[in-house]
Amino acid sequence: MKEYIIASTLLLMKSSCRLHHKSYAPREVTVVICSHMIVKMAAIRLVVASATLMFGLAAAVYDPKYPIPYQRLKHRPKNNPYCQAGVIPFCPTGRPPHTMPEFSPNDTLYVYALKAPVWEFKFGDLLGKFHIMHDAMGFHHVQSGANFTMEWYELDQLFNCTFPHELKSGELIWCNQGAACIYDGIDEKHWKANGTLAKVAEINGTTFNLFANWTEWDNTTGVYYETWTVRDKPGGKMWFDSWECASWVQRAFKALGIHGAKFNQSVHLNYTRMNIYSKEPQLLGNASTIFNNPNHKQWAHDIKKFYQNFQSHQSMPELLESLIKAFEEVILDEKFYLYYNQEYWLLNVQRPYFNLTYEEVPLPSQ
Q1: Which residues are catalytic?
Q2: Where are the alpha helices (DSSP H) in 118-166?
Q3: Which residues contact 209 (CB under 8 A, 6 or more apart)?
Q4: Whole-model pTM above 0.90?
Q5: Cis preceding linkage at 294, omega within 30
Q6: Whose C-alpha in 185, 247, 281, 311 is 20 to 30 A from the C-alpha of 303?
Q7: Bridge partners for 111 per DSSP
Q8: Residue 353 in contact with residue 330, Cβ under 8 Å?
Q9: What is the pLDDT of residues 170-183, one digit of tens each?
Q10: Burial of 237: CB neighbours in 10 Å, binned 0-12, 13-18, 19+
Q11: Phi and psi (nearest 5°) for 52?
């Protein structure tokens, strides 16, 4: 573009010089006019170069890097007392916080990948037929024979992590924390019946103890559950990555690998993703900048109107009706409001809009 502007300006100036030369017979006058125009040209080139530099710097500053990095916190905030897990509380038989097992350096532990259909306790294998799977990890301590399970999931159930609650005051409340849960035993029947129980590695006590430290750090800083993976098209550019049970297992395997675990590469594992397809996302802002700013009344109205169809406190028939209506509106309006890193983003969705994928992710290699 800048080359085009400079070339066009030069052409105009040359034409201007020729015209002045025809208009004024004395050569001295022609030289003066053309010299004057050349000085102007130098100034224009300086302006164009400066503008180009400024635009380049602006792009470097304001052009976000994709996928948008997940924002870790310095510490885990207290969960809002308004938020409730419902029928099954979070981690009912789990260990208290900061009580990870510790082993002797030369102990041996087997590491297992665990998978089962989501909500298997309620629907059996139904969701497994659509590859909607929950992921976890298991450990077997060879010296003692003890088993224990680790998983990362939502504190207040999946729907509450995905959509906010609208209070009578109109305020939106998000119940979207997730956390690690560790409890004794491995329920082999549960994991084997409709899912996976696969040994993926053997590690020593030192590796596990380092992994335990990583788990504490990850659980303190990686707080908020993110349901959606957002891409421009299937297999295309990723705008946002999910942060849920499957991504936690992948992070955990990576951490084990960094600390010395060697994985059985003959084991192949797939993970569920809930995908939205969108054009480049538009950052709207956080709750304060949107809902407390009179200039953003329309955004505030549109966001609240969008989420009204995703209220979990409705009866099941009402909720299903609302969800059908909501997704019809998403497809017709081609708009979806995403909450990520405690900020609202506008997604201009495009075909195929939504889908579920079950993608293979290799185990870490040395």
Answers
A1: 134, 245
A2: 120-123, 158-162
A3: 102, 103, 105
A4: no
A5: no
A6: 247
A7: 139, 201
A8: yes
A9: 999 999 999 999 99
A10: exposed
A11: -60, -45
